[in-house]
Amino acid sequence: MLSKENRGYKDSVFVDLFYSDETAKGNLLSLYNALHDTDLTDEGLIKKVRIEDILYKNFNNDISCRVGDGVFVFGEHQSTVNPNIPVRYAMYAGRAYEQVLDKRDRYRTRLVKIPAPEFYVFYNGREEYPVQQDLSLSDAFMSLPGPNTMGLKVTVININIDKGHEILDKCRVLKEYSQFIDTVRSYADEADPIKRAVGECIERGILARYLERKGSEVRNMLVAEYSYEEDIRVKQEEAGIEVLVQDNLEEGVPKERILEKLQRRFSLDLEQAEEHYRRYSSL
Predict the structure, then answer these.
(1) How far is 78 from 126, CA to CA, in rounded Å?
(2) In the β-sheet with 46-48, what is the strand arrangement from edge to edge?
(3) Residue with the larger pLDDT of the pair 283 and 167
(4) Residue of 251, 250, 252, 246 lying closest to 262 (CA atoms)
(5) Domain-embedded: residue 240
(6) What is the span of the domain harbouring residue 159?
(7) Helix spans in 101-207 (H)
(8) Helix, coil or strand: residue 153
(9) Residue 114 resides in a domain
(10) Deepest of 8, 152, 256, 281, by most Cβ within 10 A of its Cβ?
């Protein structure tokens, strides 16, 4: 059997809707239908999958599932698109197939059929991103791919409501989720934006039943989710600053020029740029 969900991990609202909630199987089936232009109705076809310690250690962003016996849908929700996701998915898929294939099948002399894998990321971050874009495992290869090179493609779908991806009109719960997040953001400069967004969305019939059942849980999930996202953003920015300083020092770029680059690229004032320069130039 696949490993059981680790309850020490936290779910985002997206993952709660499509993986953990009592309505999750129906929501996953609706999402699958939207991706494939099908009209399946049997929720029993959905078999949720989760392999721990591959994608994230703090948050469950994974909504992967098997649909019947023929398709393995690997899905992840992200608010920041990571270019390394094809590499992580390659690792994840290997672990997943280990769990669903009988060990004896791997050594049979006849061909053993496996579910066809599909890889998706559902993006709803604030940074500008195309409506849809493919990421390839081969982008990470140190040399040009040859004829026998492993291939893996991840389709990143921007589900922000203003982007108008066609999938939003095909999957009602996905559209309402995007409308809910957009409403939360619209109250960002006001007191208790999540509480206000929950109230407004219930009035407008956006995820109304879900929010009525789990309003306080949703508020807690969003607070934790936004705190996590901010932590990731800060760490990524710090890593970028360190790389800029170190690379420019190795190339012999003068301090004044490095400070200018830091100010321009990371929107720092001179004092902040000086502080980062002192920290990373002494490493």
Answers:
(1) 11
(2) 46-48, 65-67, 71-78, 116-123, 153-158, 132-136
(3) 167
(4) 246
(5) no
(6) 1-165
(7) 167-170, 172-186, 193-204
(8) strand
(9) yes
(10) 152
